[in-house]
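pasting for the record
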Amino acid sequence: MSWLGAVPAWCWWLIAMVLVAGGQQYRVVVAQGETGAARGELSDYRLEVAERDRRAAVQARTEEQRRQAVADEADRKADEKYTDLESRAADAESRAVGLRGEIARLRAGRSATCDTIATQQRQAGATAVVVLGGLLEDADRMAGSCAAALERSRIAGLACEAVVDGLRAKPIQQP
């Protein structure tokens, strides 16, 4: 122990301080290494999350475009059907005008032939033809408007079904 006594006390304190400072420095270096590794992992995680978000946005945009295309196609088909309906309705109206003209001709012919019959019979017959002709014209107009309204409703319903069926065809897939 003689050589231990030769070392002054302040050196022992200095040696102890150097050992403690070295230990602390070692802990700091290890902590910095762990922090660097954690920062690297965090950076990788952020990149991974950003890529996942980008893919999800692309997928959502693609799905939105697909859905819009389905809706646009259904709208286009419905417009075509409406155009066809309008042309058929115009054709039916022109035929109805012809029928109304025929009814008017029959009324006029009926009144001309009835001139030879007794006045009472003529009035009763003419009244019946006029009433029935008027009812026929009204029924024809009403049937045409009802048919057009029902056809428009049917086309709208089919277009709606087409959109829903198209949207159900490919559901959104989660990443």
